Predict the structure.
Amino acid sequence: MNTPIGVNSLRTGPNDRGRFGDYGGRFVAETLMPLILEVERAYTAAKADAAFDAELRHYMTHYVGRPSPLWHAERLTRHLGGAKIYFKRDELNHTGSHKANNCMGQILLARRMGKTRIIAETGAGQHGVATATMCALFGLPCTVYMGAVDVERQAPNVFRMKLLGAEVKPVTSGAGTLKDAMNEAMRDWVANVADTYYLIGTVAGPHPYPMMVRDFQSVIGEEAKVQMQEAEGRLPDAAVACIGGGSNAMGLFHPFLDDASVRLIGVEAGGHGIETGEHAASLTGGRPGVLHGNRTYLLQDDDGQILEAHSISAGLDYPGIGPEHAWLHDIKRVEYVSATDQEALAAFQLCTRTEGIIPALEPAHALAYVTRLAPTMKPDQIILMNLCGRGDKDIFAVAQHLGVKL
Amino acid sequence: MSRIAARFAELKRQARGALIPFLEAWDPDEATSMALLRGMPEAGADLIEIGMPFTDPMADGPIIQAAGKRGLAAGVKVAKVLEMVRDFRTTDAATPVVLMGYLNPILSYGTERFCKDAAEAGVDGLIIVDLPTEEADLLLPYSSANGLDFIRLIAPTTDNERLPHVLNGSSGFVYYVSIAGITGTRTATAEQLEVAIPRIRRVTDLPIAIGFGVRTPDQAATAAKIADAAVVASALIETLATQLDADGKARPGAVEVVLDQIRALAAAVRK
């Protein structure tokens, strides 16, 4: 179904050094280097193994619940007046977000590698919950690192992870958010190299993670492409997704990279507004540097110190972005824009009332941009948006922002 | 001959290993940190390692994380670390100084400019934690052009097959990260080191320093005997941290307390 990958394809990366253009790579301490090479070897072997693919498909179908539906958001379309809007319903996956796609892939890999302990970082808790879920399914001990600030603002997910048998370790270093959780997970990995597998939740980190997570998430775009053909007999005019590290966006975009007629739009978290400096928009407001094992756009000061990101959404609250996005930004294949906290809150409520779907605050950012974009397009044009997570986890935070006491 | 090579050659004649104490730049402030640096050679430092603070020190434990945070709060910048070394060189031309840090502040400063300025300031070597051999070409041309030793890290996870690859293009000395873990946590046993160090010696003639988990005079003496040098970092920073008042300022005499600890370590290494 997908366009065959040719020599001029944008889908051939990364190169053997894990680079997408100038971005990506393997910037880790020597202690971790052999482990990362081991993950790469194991993943390359798994990818070429039909049995691995069959096993993954089995669990994706019967446990995760794929394919996720493609939904024509008719009332929202009428409300906005303009392009026809479709949602890719990845919030309907088991555990409530696209994170399950990647976690299932990686946990099967970890099992193949004989690893007996899983660690992960989490921001909003969606990746943590998905990891804890797969660990429960396969009976593996699981430790999730989560910024202390996020532990507080995502209490329901913390409880979920604990119910699933995971140990949740609050991280107090730095600002106590996703970046610091990732530092701490890497420190754990360095200290437990023999038995532990680090299940990274986004398309960032050292090679092969950005490639591997993208591959596991590409099921989103692959399904959507087929479903779009079935529904409309053509590709969408624009595909929109929110971006923290960028895994749901990469999963949606990648199968469309060589389809020049499809505008690809990534929506970063604008926080209080780019001009305030309090945001999480690494491409819009950052510059290239090295953090967490890869070269990419980062929020940093003049001396290369990493700045704290800000977003109402814990899942987007990250000062970096996956290296493939950095490259797609530079070559201008994907447009990167931003939506503020307030815009996301408004979109959150709009989606809930018009479509009866409570979106997570993360895709509410994508939707906020859709509400700006759709009215500028014609009714015969199509927007495909990845509704990558459900918002049940966010209702307490939203209530607080709306001044409602629960 | 570089300062580092000269110093190890001299120690070989004395038939002893080196003590390499560590300090984090501007921890807890410029003056204290500078006084500590100046006092180190007299207290028995054979080489000195200066940590360059970074917001996200992934290989460091809580003790060095806190030190870096104090340095950053005091306003340290990459240029200020180089200034410390320049200042140090006005009174000490012989003690090798090695900078240890993470890549991003160096990238931000400009790798070529950094190597040039570091060499001019009197820096002898660089240890960049998150720049493994696979990515070393980012910096190696500039460090070599400016006569800076690019010191490689070897870990317990580095297998024999990988060793020559990791050491390719390395100079100065080899830094053996003696535990799989972060700084200031576990300590390798003498038995483990007696297996690990000969494994590295088989592939390099460079001196080998042991770091991570070297805390006491006894441990330093053992490490310097089995290898060629012992790096002590977290233990010294921990002592400095006990000498800070409630506002995080160094109490009078704080520097002397740390230097006394270095004296004890140096005495053990010389025994």
